[in-house]
Design goal:
Blueprint: H1 2-17, H2 19-22, H3 27-46, H4 54-76, H5 84-88, H6 90-112, H7 117-123, H8 126-141, H9 148-255
Helix pairs in contact: 1-9, 3-8, 3-9, 4-6, 4-8, 6-8, 8-9
Length: 256
């Protein structure tokens, strides 16, 4: 009995997994969801310091509302477009209604900022919202019979997809951290190179300054030496003139 129950769950799980292949018309609504999930994972793994934001959370809640309306359309058109289809496909109608209700609930709490950001951004993240929508789409488009085994299979399907994207997110985060470490190392190396150039230039400037001071000192010494020589020469010239004047005076005295 247990094995039969598990086999039913497994069969329902495979049905949900292969739903896009069995029902290609669902690809048109599923593909944008998968693209959004992948793109947002790449974005937030690259810019890890950024958070979701209330406006983005509000926009994500609208995804569930629009998807639920498409599911209602699918149920309505299941048999020549009749309202009677909602009473025939009660399980699918309930799933669509719950998805619509979840969308309006998230819209309300995000619009009014009721929950703490950490909780609100978690339940309204592109990953949780779009995967929930994807599982609901797979259940409705595959026309699977809604029962206990289907609900369990849907939960397992949700967790499986969530785990795959969470693993992708983890790998990308580690990759970008590695890239950022390499960039930081390059910046440090560049700073070290600049520091070496600055130190070398500083050393050269000091040596040039020493040479200039030495040259100035020698020039000052030379000027003093010239001044000293000039004083000696001036003194000798003064003595020579004085001696000449004295001789001239002596000659004049002798003539008298």
């Amino acid at each position: 009995m247990v094995s039969s129950f598990l086999q039913q769950i497994y069969g329902q799980f495979i049905t949900l997994l292969t739903a896009p292949n069995s029902h290609p018309d669902m690809i048109w609504i599923v593909l944008p969801l998968l693209v959004i999930i992948t793109l947002m994972i790449f974005y937030f793994s690259r810019y890890q310091d950024e958070e979701l934001g209330w406006n983005t959370a509000l926009g994500n809640s609208l995804v569930l509302i629009f998807v639920s309306l498409d599911l209602f359309r699918t149920i309505f058109n299941a048999d020549s477009g009749s309202m009677h289809n909602f009473t025939i496909n009660v399980g699918a109608t309930i799933i669509s209604f719950l998805l619509l209700l979840e969308g309006f609930f998230l819209l309300f709490i995000n619009f009014n900022h009721i929950l703490p950001k950490r909780i609100a951004f978690l339940v309204s993240s592109p990953l949780s919202v779009n995967i929930t929508a994807y599982v609901a789409i797979a259940m409705i488009y595959s026309q699977i019979v809604i029962g206990l085994t289907t609900i369990i299979a849907a939960i397992l399907f949700f967790l499986a997809i969530l785990s795959c994207f969470a693993l992708l997110n983890l790998i990308l985060k580690r990759w970008w951290r590695y890239i950022n470490r390499l960039k930081s190392k390059e910046k440090i190396d560049d700073v070290k190179k600049v520091k070496k150039v600055v130190q070398k230039t500083k050393k050269e400037l000091k040596e040039t300054e020493k040479k200039i001071k030495k040259a100035a000192k020698e020039e000052k010494k030379e000027v003093k030496q010239k001044q000293k020589e000039w004083k000696v020469l001036e003194h000798a010239l003064h003595n020579h003139r004085k001696k000449k004047n004295d001789n001239h005076k002596n000659r004049n005295r002798k003539k008298r």
